[in-house]
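Input chain follows. Return structure tokens only.
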Amino acid sequence: MQKQALVLGAGGFIGSHLVKRLKAEGFWVRGVDLKFPEFAETEADDFVIGDLREQSICREVIDRRFDEVYQLAADMGGAGYIFTGQHDADIMHNSATINLNVVDLCHKRNIKRVFYSSSACMYPAYNQEDPDNPNCAEDSAYPAAPDSEYGWEKLFSERLYLAYNRNFGMQCRVARFHNIFGPEGTWTGGKEKAPAAICRKVASAVQGGEIEIWGDGTQTRSFLFIDECVEGILRLTRSDFEGPVNIGSDEMVSINQLVDMVTEIAGKPLKKHHIDGPLGVRGRNSDNRLIEEKLGWRPNQPLAEGLKQTYAWVERQVRGNK
């Protein structure tokens, strides 16, 4: 009998790629989101445009016992959206409401395997002040002190899904994503992440010109290519380990280094003009010891390889918009 999967947030970047992978594995897939994927036709067998904050919509789409449910739906975006403080109430209310609805209705349908996408934003800000030595080991989450309300909601929802495991015998799996990037991701408009934003700025810049960089550029991050993210999601969901576990790259770079990598790929030397802007923590890097121990796997694709594919895609979008 054909297996069935439900992908919530299937119109988003990670969700649309996950749908493609599940279809390639032979699943019947239902996708749900407020919008269709922006840059490619969905490959889902059934795609429902619906607001998961509404219980009636959740009941409509969680209408059977799916073999696997992937909960990626959230009110989220890049630093320009999360760290200004202007969207805090929406971020907390919208995402928490979705998660409260989804996990309870999955329980009532006797669905066991539910994947929940948390974020590295839930790690304490006090462990990420040194850009060269951030601490993002999974057990460093407490005492809790996320750097944003987005992170606080993620931490609450992690505990929500794991409580349903303890109290109702579910098999929810929790992963903490670290800056996922790649083709068909948001690349303009304020919700884009750093790799897409830098690719856009470089692609739009004139040869020998300059691009604006938020902050002094010494803040550090790691960035995980979308294909490895999807691989990690599936491995965790089908494992005996509930998490939480990091899904991210441990190849840490400064934002200045990231810019240099993209300008080299583009063959376009540019000056950096540092300006004030929302930054988040000073340093963040995925600690991959636990995922390797529990799953026997860790992401290993070099950042430059994923950036080449992403820059080529973003450059085509920029050219197409001119």
